[in-house]
Design a protein that fits this description.
The structure is a single chain. By secondary structure, the chain is mostly helical. It has helices spanning 9-14, 17-38, 46-72. It has 3 helices and no strands.
Length: 73
């Protein structure tokens, strides 16, 4: 008898591969926009700090979602 507990955690994550692909696409796209914006604003301004935080967060999100996608294929 097969149950939902017969799958590994990664197999459960791979069930949502389309969502992971969407998350990766959006995070990589916005990361590109933030990197362009990062070099066009004054360093030391509050906007710069928020942009750096966005770059760090989007980088982590892109790497994690990309890792899950690479393991699913």
């Amino acid at each position: 008898m097969a149950s939902k507990y017969d799958k590994s955690y990664l197999e459960h994550l791979c069930d949502y591969e389309q969502g992971w692909r969407l998350l990766f696409t959006f995070s990589a796209g916005f990361l590109g926009i933030m990197l362009i914006w990062l070099f066009s604003i004054d360093s030391g301004s509050p906007t710069y700090v928020v942009t750096v935080m966005n770059v760090v967060g989007l980088s982590v999100l892109a790497v994690l979602s990309g890792f899950v996608l690479s393991r699913c294929e």
